[in-house]
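pls design
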């Protein structure tokens, strides 16, 4: 008799979940695929990569000049005056500082390449996000997940429980 009740409760729970899931429409996307196949994104990425390559080539040239300076110094330091050595050491240190400054200015956290990424890809990503929101609303999705990253990219605001949680937290004081 107890098994019968357990089976009935389990059946009711399963049916409730099935009906609830049927009402709650959930979708997912692969953002990487969108970026790889959406022509505006592809064009923006190509433009960004071209600029990054140009900046990297300049950096490689600067590194080569730096290495050449060091090699020339090493070759001549034994037969040169202290004044010449001192001058060349200063030039090498200056060149090293220039290399570091260039690297930070172009590739650092707030560097030029990240600003260009925002400039080129920002509008494309905004367009993708607006399309996601529009399609999510039009097609009645409660949630749309990005399968590539495991994040929610669209959520119906009616499922937002932030205020409820804040109210409960305030009650717990």
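designed seq:
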């Amino acid at each position: 008799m107890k098994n019968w009740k357990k089976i009935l409760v389990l059946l009711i729970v399963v049916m409730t979940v099935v009906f609830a899931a049927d009402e709650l429409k959930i979708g997912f996307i692969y953002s990487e695929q969108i970026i790889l196949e959406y022509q505006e994104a592809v064009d923006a990425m190509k433009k960004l990569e071209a600029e990054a390559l140009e900046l990297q080539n300049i950096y490689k040239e600067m590194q080569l000049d730096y290495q050449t300076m060091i090699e020339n110094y090493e070759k001549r330091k034994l037969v040169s005056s202290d004044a010449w050595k001192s001058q060349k050491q200063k030039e090498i240190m200056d060149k090293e500082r220039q290399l570091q400054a260039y690297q930070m200015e172009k590739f650092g956290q707030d560097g030029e390449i990240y600003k260009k990424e925002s400039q080129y890809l920002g509008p494309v990503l905004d367009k993708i996000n607006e399309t996601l929101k529009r399609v999510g609303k039009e097609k009645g999705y409660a949630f749309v997940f990005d399968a590539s990253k495991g994040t929610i990219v669209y959520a119906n605001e009616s499922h937002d429980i932030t205020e409820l949680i804040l109210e409960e937290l305030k009650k717990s004081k």
